[in-house]
Amino acid sequence: MAHKKGQGSVRNGRDSAPKRRGLKAYGGQSVTTGSIIVTQCGTKFSPGRFVRLAKNSSIFALVDGKVYFDQSGKRVNVEPFDKAATKVC
């Protein structure tokens, strides 16, 4: 006869919370300066015009504008609303 209670469910109770990575703004959507467009591990998407790569590999907008992707779908760009803002890059 066992002197300890079974511990099956107690040992299996650990799981990490989801990180909610992925696209935060899709092609054609408007973004403001500093808005995060993609959160990712590594560089699944690479930065294009008027966007930068953060330390944690997130991609964020440098200007107010509209998000678009290149033809391969792997490079993220922002087309600025104000053409005078193109001096940022």
From TrEMBL:
GO molecular function: structural constituent of ribosome
Cell wall biogenesis/degradation is among the record's keywords: no
Residue ranges, annotated region (Disordered): 1-27
InterPro entries: Ribosomal_bL27
Presence of keyword Amino-acid biosynthesis: no
Any one Pfam family match given in the protein's UniProt record, by short name: Ribosomal_L27
Family assignment from sequence similarity: Belongs to the bacterial ribosomal protein bL27 family.
Protein's UniProt name: Large ribosomal subunit protein bL27
